[in-house]
Amino acid sequence: MQSLQVIEIKGQRVLTTRQLATAYETEIKVIQNNFQRNKDRYTAGKHYIYMDRDELREVKATYPQIEGELNRTSRANFWTEKGALLHAKSLNTDKAWEVYDYLVDFYFRIKNEDVPVEKPEPEKRKSGRAVVDVPENADMQKAIQDVRKYLNALDVIMIEYNVYRCEENFQNLKRNLDIIWLGLGRKIVDLMGMEPQIIIKEGY
Asked: What is the crossing angle of helices 167-192 and 138-161, to 10°?
C-alpha cells in the first residue's frame, strides 16, 4: 500500500476523503454518498472533523500538499480512525477491511508507538510496592489496543446486525462478524499469553 501523507488535526491523525477513497480502492463520490446516506450514524468530533473556510485555510497552510485536493472547496471533512471504520463497514469489501487493519496498525496508532516508553528503574526506588508493569509495558499496551480495535468493530457491526436488510447483505454481515470474532479471539489469546514484569512502584 502506498505510504500516506500524515495529517494531524486537533491532536489526532486523520485522512482526507481522497486519501480514504484511494486506500479503500473506491471513488471519492462513494465515500461522500456513504456519508450522506448514513449521516445520522456519524458524529462530528468522533468519526470526522469538520473544517470551514477559516479553519481549512490553516490546514492548507500547514499541509500544502493537500491544497490541490481542497482548492475548490471552502469546507471539508477529515476522517478519524472511527470514521474510517464506519466507511469500511459501509463498503463491506475484503479490501476495505484489510486496509482498515493496516490504517489502525500503521497510521492512526503509529504516533503513540513513536513515543519512547520510559523504562522503570527498580534499583533506584527505595520504597514502594511490587506491581505488574502493564500500564507501561509497550508490548502489552499494543496488545490491549489490538483487542480494543476489534471490540470497537464488534460494537459497530452489532448495531448493523439489528436492522432490516436483504438476505444477501445479511449473509455478508455474518461473514464479517465471523472475521471480527475470530480476530478478536486471536488477539485475546495473544494478550493472555503475555507475562508482565514485576517492578517496584511508589505510591501503591
From this structure: 160
Spatial contact of 90 and 34, defined as CB atoms under 8 Å apart: yes
Burial of 144 (0-12, 13-18, 19+ CB in 10 A): middle
Q: Is 79 in a helix, a strand, or coil?
A: strand
Helices 138-161 and 81-91 cross at an angle (nearest 10°) of: 40
Closest CA to 20 of 39, 37, 36, 7: 7
Whole-angstrom Cα Rg for the chain = 20
Spell out the domain ranges in the chain: 1-115, 120-201
pLDDT tens-digit map of 70-113: 777 788 899 999 999 999 999 999 889 989 888 888 888 755 44
